[in-house]
Every structure is written in structure tokens, then in C-alpha cells.
């Protein structure tokens, strides 16, 4: 790894230098060639294992924990910070420099009562979902590796510690801005320094003046909306959308009790501690907005309120537009809009969007009332001949009459498909066959826990690298969960 240290060198006062503590008997549980390529690495080796398990120092690394705060479940916590994630610096890759962080690397000045560690099960889940989301084209932080150990840690009982080696284009969160806005009230120097750094590093096309700040906030609003549109389109529930877990780049970030929907359920809650359903699947778009409002509030010393409000007002449009785009592709509705018929006025396009949104909404309602699997139902579009009344989708429905009513309008909207095979291929290219269902992750974790066997993890990771492909020997991985794996809800303890 070749590091640069821009955050460390330019933002003194925004972190504490702290060395990670080694984990004993380190061993690779998972390694991502795809993530490795992002920072110019190829295969793992023993020396790298020693470095990333904190047993050896890495050349050129600085080792620091960043300070931030954040709104957690609606309430403001004035100081959080990296309590168990230690950043080595920005590893220079062919296209971008990625922060390398050891999540679970030991205590820091921000650990509060925590031990600075991550348990194996949560480290494995973070590794798998980071790489699975990337393969689904969802903006996300990445995971280079997950490293197991025999270091005991205590949660509800004794477990073993592990480290996820996280790669992120930036670790700057909404909570960073909240921290420097509220702790140094009346002195905007640090807030401005942080905004300028963020813009020059990650929004280099923007200036660091008044106009640049406005445009920057606009882009953060758009990127956040797009990320959430992606989540809604693939049925992903994040589970802990606190503002300290919202990346300023709109990358999915900090994976704890996340889950994909099995059966479609708007009010699905994946976080055991989320008693009120604040972060339920269907709440995510609204929470994204609420979080952006918190960011806007923190930025008021830099950006005029009217400009912030104007940008926030665009959120819904960004979100709906992107969600529709993704869903239109999934259902095969995209052609009319993309053809850009010159005769289409703005009003006609808006009307088409409204109708499409309704068609999509009625489809997800059908899935919910018929208790159907979200991913598998969408995958069925890849088997569909739109001109025919027969479809496997229809066979799944209990309420066939309602489905027929919907399908007739759907057929009308799609129109005539000339090349059915091609149309089906296009659907399969956007509707994944394989997702990281909780029970699959759980099986991989149990094999490591009980037999020290990571082969299931490796197999699952390899499968999820190509979620849209057919894998004839791995059909079982596409199935709905068995009874024991239904409604697995993860706790926050990690
Ligand atoms: N075991 C732990 N030891 C010390 N601090 C912890 C521990 N677990 C969580 N924290 C801290 O509690 C706060 C909230 O935790 P949260 O679960 O959102 O983040 P995280 O998963 O630890 O890390 P990240 O947001 O970097 O992915 C963070 O400041 C985090 O560093
Ligand atoms: Mg966090």
C-alpha cells in the first residue's frame, strides 16, 4: 500500500493519533480481489496480514481516529468519534485514494465504555455486504478483507474479535460537520476548514466560496437521495441511519443490523433495538431527508438558510427520479422515456412518471398482500413474455384477479417487445438473482464459529460478486429463507 496523508496532515485537530492493538493468531477469513484492485493490490500475503491485524506497523501509515458527533435515533450525542475504527491513511489507487481503516482495531480516545473491538459475526457481515452492494452497483464503502483471531471479547457472552479492513473514499460523515458546528459555536474556522477540505478532495470541480458551498450541498443532497433510491429499489434496509453513519459522499456506510427484504414489507424493521420502527424499510427516504436537514442546520454558518432550504426542496425530486429510473429498468418500462420522443412535453413526461410510480407502487403492494419475495419476484421479469398472459409471476399470486388487473395495464405500458430474448436479458441484468439474505450470512458465520471453516464465507462472497448471473450449482442460495432463517433480526451488539 502506498499512502498519502492529506486528512492527517491538513486537518490536525480533527482526530487523535492512536495505534491499533494487535489481535492474536490472525488469519484471513475473507479477501476481496475487487477491493484490492482499487488500491493497487492483488493477492494477500503474510506480511500484509501482520500489518492489517496490527501486529506489524504498515509503512507510511499514520494511524488516527476521527472525532465527530451525530444524531442517534433522533437525539443529539455531542461527541462520538471513531471508537473502534483506526484509519491508516489514504491508499493511492489507480483512480482514487481510499481511506484504509481497521474496524475493530482497538480502543481510541472515543471508545467511551466500549472495548474498541468488533466481533467476528459483525465483521463478516460488514465484509460481505460491502462487497455485495458494490456488485449491485450501489454506492458504498468497500471491504478489503476480514481477519479473524482468537482474541476473546465479551458481548452477551464470550466471542472472538475480528477486524474488517474498510476502504472508503472518505470517512467524513454528516456528524463531522455537526461536531465542528456545535462544539465551536461562534468560531467557524474549523467548520470552514472541513468543508474546504471535503470540497477540494472529493468535489474538485467546485470552488470553495459561497457559490461553491451551495453547489456542494446540492450535490450532497442529490448523492444521498440516489443512495437511498438504490436501497429502496433492491429492498435493502440499513437499520441504523444515524447522522454519524451518513457519509458526506452518499456512500452506504457502517453496516450493522442491515437486512434485505425477503417478503416485501414496507414497515420491515431489521434492527432489534429499533422499537419504534424509526429506521424501518419504508421510512428510509424520510429519514434521509431528516438527516440532510440536520446537516443543513450544521452548515448554517457557511450557507444561507434560503439556499439550504432550496437545495433540500430538491431532495424528493432526486429521490423519486432515481428510484423511478431504477424501477423502470427493472420492470422494463424505460423505453418510452429513453426514446426521448420529441413530441413529449415536460408535462407529458411528468404524467408518465406519475403513472409509472403508481404502477410500481401497485406492484409492491401486490407483493406485500400476496406475501411474495421481493428479489425473486423481480427476477421473474427475466422470464416474462409480455405479450403473453401466462407468467410465472401470475402463478405465484394468491389474488389472481388483482394481479390480472395490474398486469393488463403493465402490458399496455410496456407495449410491443420485438426481441423478447433481448428484453429478458436486460431485465436479468438489473434484477439480481442472489442477494445477501441474513440466513446465508448466518450459515457462513456458524461454520466459522463452530468448525473454524471459512469456506462458506468464501463461496458466498464469490457468488455475490456476480449477483445477476446464473450459477446453476448454487440455485439454493437464491431461495427464500428456510423457517429458521425467516425474520432473523440482528441486535446492535457488534
Ligand atoms: N465496541 C466498541 N468499542 C468502542 N466504541 C464503539 C464500539 N462499538 C461502537 N462504538 C462507537 O459507538 C458509536 C456508534 O457506533 P456505530 O455502531 O454507529 O459505529 P461503528 O459500527 O462502531 O463504526 P462505523 O460508524 O465507523 O462503521 C461510534 O462512535 C463507534 O465508534
Ligand atoms: Mg457508526
Automatic annotation (TrEMBL):
It comes from the Bacteria. Its EC number is 2.7.7.-, 2.7.7.108. It is an enzyme of class 2 (transferase). The active site is at residue 244. InterPro entries: SelO (IPR003846). GO terms for molecular function: AMPylase activity; ATP binding; magnesium ion binding; manganese ion binding. This is Protein nucleotidyltransferase YdiU.
